[in-house]
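TEACHING EXERCISE
Course module: macromolecular assemblies
Task: Read the component lines below, then compare them to the predicted structure of the full complex.
Student: A.B.
Group: 4
Components provided:
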Amino acid sequence: MTGLTLTDIRKSYGSVDVIHGIDLEIQEGEFVVFVGPSGCGKSTLLRMIAGLEDITGGTLKIDGETVNDIPPSKRGIAMVFQSYALYPHMTVYDNMAFGMRIAKESKEEIDRRVRSAAAILQLEPYLDRLPKALSGGQRQRVAIGRAICRDPKVFLFDEPLSNLDAALRVATRIEINKLHESMPNSTMIYVTHDQVEAMTLADRIVVLSAGHIEQVGAPIELYNRPANLFVAQFIGSPAMNIIPAKIESAGAQTTVTLTGGKSVTVDIPTDPAESGKEASFGVRPEDLTVAEGDDFIFEGEVALAEQLGEVTLYYIEGLVKDQPIIAKMPGNHPSRRGERVRFTAGRETLHLFDAAGQTYRRSSDG
Amino acid sequence: MNPLVQGLITIVIGVGGCVGYFYLSNLVVDHLIFPAKGKNAGRNINRANKVRPWLFLFPAIFALGLYLVYPVVGSFWRSLFNRAGTDFIGLGNYMALAASDEFRTAVLNNFLWVLFVPAGATAFGLLAAQLTDKMRWGNVAKSLIFMPMAISFVGASLIWKFVYANNADIGLINAVREALGASGPIDVLQIPFWNNFFLMVILIWIQTGFAMVILSAALRGIPEETVEAAVIDGANPFQIFFKIKVPQMMGTIVVVWTTITILVLKVFDIVYTMTGGNFGTQILPSYMMAYMFRDDGRATAVAFVIMLIVLPVMIWNIRQARRELR
Ligand SMILES: Nc1ncnc2c1ncn2[C@@H]1O[C@H](COP(=O)(O)OP(=O)(O)O)[C@@H](O)[C@H]1O
Ligand SMILES: [Mg+2]
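Instructor-supplied answer key:
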């Protein structure tokens, strides 16, 4: 069953177009994360779903019903804000009960729902406190509790962890994950600019940039098979290394010449017409290894080495202008700073993008 | 002497005096009273540093004492003397006040003023703040509502004298009455009891602008997300205003309310100009004015009573304002 359907959703502020036509289907019970750089329109899109912003164009359906002109409270949604947005003059209990009191629920029902939400989020000892007497993590749990009390079809989260410190962020992330598992019928839409949050929480990630969708897919799919350069560089940390290249010979396998003159053959099929065109060659830092012998992809001087214990990062400069190539290798490796080192990677881990930034797909991708 | 030279000399004496005072007083503390040598050098340095803030504070404390504390004490002292200031009569003036019908009327009326003017001005100010918020012509509307603040109380009273004029060709009220077919003009300032309210309207009219400006700022300070959360929770505009916005502005509302309350206990101009305290419209400040220069003993006694009434409101006001700042 369909949870949400977005058809050609657009948003303009006056003459400024912010969202340029989003088409998306979200299944009931799915956990979808909108991710993208700051200012790409994630919040705007979420707020349109919530009904806090008017939809300039397109249709939005929740549970099969068009809700473009339905007020937020009737859409069956609940929202958790980055700034918590708790009512500062109300106790934790009243914060969670407010919506139900407006809806004139019975006292018993309100009490039952508040207490069960408080139990899920371990907020019972704090029900009589004012928000200002809570820590950031507790406040955000109250905000989540308030959302649970609304018993919504769709939960909307707008960067709910951004105001928390790193340790709390991880803990709260895990809690949100558990919450989703305990409510398998609730659809959740979660906005973040943090790709780690996106990877860990999502059933499906929607990568947005400048008001349009770059790619939609499961986290691992986006990691392994990015549809374009933008997604390739956005997902994964450190970002994928991109080396300008030129296609030498197209075919079932493609041979490219990297800047610097080295020829590399990848098992990605290309149309013969592509021969001679500019392209971008991509390889993730974690796929690189130090090459033994003559079978290597590139060679360069290690400008900097970061030994973190669990991994070692080599920064190779001079190959691509103003952009070090990073190699991330598990375990402890010697610094090798100042040495010329050859690197290689498994053939199946290499990526190739055309001049417009679109991925040349592998034959196995279908 | 040339005024320019006079001015320069004043500046030189003033600045030089300050510098000299701080220099010399520090010198005295550091070298004569607590010298930083000998066997108690360490202790003396500590003591000198404890004393030093008071050296710097002293001029301010002295000036405040001279201009704030002395008048209070002096007024109280004067209120214990007779009309001419020659005979000590103890609490005689206060007894006379307690026995005076006019004083009692003034207290009662003042009570009404304190009740209705801050309430009215705050309520209208809040309404104006909410209605002009995010409105396209909001700032123009705000300027218009704020305008009366720029008029003196006497000026405002004169304007309202026209509004209340006992003549349908001049007075707005009587013009409206005539248009509605009422017979003959009336003087609203002579209607017993209700005339008080016609006077209060003037102060409310003036103070609404003040309340609106402060409350507008408070309204802007409310986090937009709390309002959005309430929208999602299904609250209608009235519920959002009264259950989400007003409670979050409560601190500011109290400050505005008490500030206007204090003002109410000081304003004599309106009553003085409009009715001169006649027709049962006397309030404490105008009552005080009525005695000033005729019987300073009585007048200072009234002033002291007013101060006693204002003081607790003032303390509350300052406390609340401090809490708002935090
Ligand atoms: N009220 C507004 N008026 C004009 N432009 C806006 C408004 N709100 C947001 N924008 C613009 O819309 C774009 C997307 O904003 P937003 O959805 O908040 O981004 P994100 O949440 O992805 O960081 C930004 O470029 C922002 O400047
Ligand atoms: Mg945002």
